[in-house]
What we know:
By secondary structure, this protein is an alpha+beta fold. Helix content is 34%, strand content 30%.
Amino acid sequence: MILCIPDVLTAPQVAEARALLNAAEWTDGKSTAGYQASQVKDNLQLPVNHPVARQLGETILTALSSNPLFMSAALPLHFLPPMFNRYDGGRQFGTHVDGAIRQVPGTPHRIRTDLSCTLFFAEPEEYDGGELVIEDTYGSKRVKLPAGHLVLYPSTSLHHVTPVTRGSRLCSFFWLQSLIRDDQRRSMMFDMDVAIQRLASDHPGHPSALSLTGVYHNLLRQWAEL
C-alpha cells in the first residue's frame, strides 16, 4: 500500500523547519548508506546527531502520533529517528531497496523496516525533477507532494529519486516497524478501520459498528508482534 497523507505539518511548522534546514551544514549522504545503496546514492544529508535533526525529528514524530490517518495505516511499534536530505545540482538516488534491519543511532537497539516515510518540505513548483518513484505490483507511482505532506510505502519496494535539475528538494525520510509485519494484512486492517469509521459516521449507534470493531481488535490481537 502506498498512501499519501496530507498536512502532517502545519504551514508555520514547515516554515520553521525550512529556516533551520537552510541554515544547517550538510554532509555527503553516502555516509549513512549500505553498500548497495551507496553505489547509486548522490545527495546531501544532515548528520544523524545534528541538533536540527533531533529537534525537527521530535516535531515530526509528535505530529504523526496525533494523525489518525497515519496511525491507522502504519500501526507503528518502533520508529527510527527521522533523517533529512537535500537534492540539488542534478543529484539523484538510483533504484534501490531499503535495508531490512537498521540500528537506532546511539543505542544497541535495532528495528525491522516495514514501512518507509518521506515528508516533503519544499513545494513541487520550487524544483524540477526530484520525484520519488515507487515500484509495486501495479506498476510505478511517481510522488512529489506539497510541503508538509508525507508518503508512506512498504520498505520492500524498489524505489528511486529522479535528478533535481532546478532548485532544491528538501525532505525528511525515516522508517518504522509496524505492529503487523505483513503489508497485505496491514492494508486489510486499514481498510477495515476506514470502513468502521465511515459506518459509525453515516449510521451513529449502528450495532454492526460494534461487531466490526470487535473483529478488528481480534485480528490485531492475532497478528500483532510486540
